[in-house]
Design a protein that fits this description.
Blueprint: H1 3-14, H2 20-35, H3 45-62, H4 71-96, E1 109-112, E2 119-122, E3 128-131, E4 136-139, E5 147-159, E6 168-173, E7 176-180, E8 183-190, E9 193-200, E10 203-209, E11 212-218, E12 222-226, E13 234-237, H5 240-244, E14 250-257, H6 258-267, E15 272-275, E16 284-290, H7 294-305, E17 307-312, E18 315-320
Parallel strand pairs: 5-6, 15-18
Antiparallel strand pairs: 1-4, 2-3, 3-5, 4-5, 5-8, 6-7, 7-10, 8-9, 9-12, 10-11, 12-13, 14-16, 17-18
Length: 322
């Protein structure tokens, strides 16, 4: 987020004029500090003590008499307090930052989700991202020159079209990225492979192999996927709603194999799945199950696939129910 944008949002919050979208954007910025690494871990004991001393001196110099705040202003002061600490930390960080840590890392925005969680993020250009479980999104806060994010896991993107037709890029690896102008799509980068499903608009997938670069232009309803080698991709037509359903807290199966379902349980929910008979993986089901309740999710899979499911901590054991 740029300094001007943050100043505008804080002014809106202080005046009680934040819209729902602006509130989500500010909450996303505020929440980014929870996921940020502790930069003081790389400091020596002496440098850490000096930094703490500078911070305490600065804080004591800013303390005023306590005031009773109107309720609508308290949330604004929460953001302002974070900014004050960030400013104080910044002075010490650039003074004591180890030479081995790039300066860009200090300004990188990082969002993560745990197993089974989802998170909505509003980007600096007001594009929207919904992270699926066990996922990570990073980007630089300054988007004046380019709009670019790095994804590990799975996410839905609703990209706005800028007045200057600025390209938006999603990078999942050194040899693969998705370029768009304004559209809606899902990108998945898991252990089982990489997948892009286009819901609206048009995207271009860049696939690199050594010195050669190829590209695939996708239309609504297209799916592009590959295992490890992007040049060996598959392009086919699908129903995008099947791949977007998770963002609405449900999974939709349409002749889906149990093998594909176990991959979701491992990638998104963090389970380790063990199966008595490998032939069970060929069973196919159709229907829908909720994603917000793991017990209901497993019960639905058990009933639809006619398998017994035994759960022990993060391990799931499947056996024939017939």
């Amino acid at each position: 987020m740029t300094r001007d944008r943050l100043r505008y949002l804080l002014d809106q919050a202080r005046a009680g004029r934040l819209t729902t979208e602006e509130t989500s954007e500010l909450e996303g910025w505020y929440g980014g500090f929870d996921a940020a690494p502790d930069f003081t871990e790389g400091l020596s004991d002496d440098a850490r003590r000096q930094l703490e001393s500078r911070m305490l001196d600065a804080i004591h110099g800013k303390i005023d008499e306590p005031r009773v705040l109107p309720l609508r202003q308290r949330s604004w002061f929460r953001y302002a307090a974070v900014i004050a600490v960030v400013v104080l930390l910044a002075g010490g960080w650039f003074l004591y930052r180890p030479a081995s840590v790039p300066a860009a890392e200090a300004t990188e925005m990082v969002y993560t989700t745990g197993f089974g969680q989802t998170k909505t993020i509003v980007l600096p250009d007001r594009s929207e991202v919904i992270l699926n479980g066990n996922s990570r999104l990073t980007y630089a806060p300054d988007w004046k020159k380019e709009r670019k994010v790095w994804l590990s896991g799975e996410a839905f993107f609703k990209v706005v079209h800028t007045h200057n037709h600025q390209k938006f890029s999603v990078i999942t690896a050194d040899d693969f990225q998705v370029d768009v102008l304004g559209t809606q799509f899902v990108v998945s980068k898991r252990k089982s492979g990489t997948r892009v499903v286009l819901s609206e608009g048009k995207v271009q997938c860049l696939l690199k192999e050594r010195a050669r670069e190829d590209s695939v232009v996708m239309r609504p309803g297209d799916l592009v996927e590959f295992d490890r080698n992007p040049s060996r991709y598959t392009l086919k037509k699908v129903d995008p709603s099947l791949y977007l359903a998770w963002k609405d807290q449900k999974l939709i199966f349409r002749n889906t194999s149990l093998k594909e379902i176990t991959q979701v349980l491992e990638d998104t929910y963090g389970f380790t799945v063990r199966i008595d008979d490998a032939s069970l993986l060929q069973r196919r089901i159709s229907g829908s199950v909720p994603t917000t309740n793991v017990e209901l999710l497993l019960e639905g899979i058990s009933e639809a696939c006619q398998v017994k499911i035994r759960q022990e901590d993060r391990r799931i054991y499947l056996s024939d129910q017939r």
